[in-house]
Amino acid sequence: MTALKLTQIGNSVGVILPKEVLSRLKLEKGDSLFITDCANGITLSPYSPDFEQQMAVARKVMKKRRDALRELAK
């Protein structure tokens, strides 16, 4: 576990992530980081939970309408 210190950034307070953490999350300056509430705290992730839900629905539709999508792709 790594302890991070809160830092004053302008009128806000922020956390500076170490290079190792950025590398593990495959993040670079300007990328988005999503915070999700969990039962035991919060989760930081580069993946949007809303996007994941949309993709699950899209996969379901693509599986159901596979033949129609194949014809449209021709």
Question: Can I get a quick summary?
Answer:
With 74 residues, the protein is α+β, with helices and mostly antiparallel strands. The chain has three helices and four strands; from the N terminus they run E-E-H-E-E-H-H.
Rg over alpha carbons: 19 Å
Helix content range: 40-55%
* Succession of helices and strands: EEHEEHH
The main sheet orders its strands as: 1-2
Beta strand %: 15-25%
Strand-pairing-aware structural class: alpha+beta
What are the segments in which pLDDT stays under 50 over at least 5 consecutive residues? none
DSSP helical segment count: 3
The rounded distance between the terminal residues' Cα atoms is 52 Å
Apparent shape: elongated
Query: What's the pLDDT, averaged over the residues?
Result: 88
What is the count of distinct domains? 1
Largest sheet: 2 strands, antiparallel
How many beta-strand runs? 4
Describe the protein's topology.
Elements: E1 6-9, E2 12-15, H1 19-25, E3 34-38, E4 41-45, H2 49-64, H3 66-73
Antiparallel strand pairs: 1-2, 3-4
Structure notes:
The chain has one domain (6-73). Helices cover 42% and strands 24% of the residues. It contains 3 helices and 4 strands, in the order ββαββαα. The strands form 2 sheets. It has a two-stranded antiparallel sheet. A two-stranded antiparallel sheet has the order 3-4. β1 and β2 form a beta hairpin. The longest helix is centred in the C-terminal third of the chain and has 16 residues, at 49-64. It starts with 5 loop residues before the first strand and ends with a helix.
Question: What are its keywords?
Answer:
74 residues; alpha+beta; 3 helices; elongated
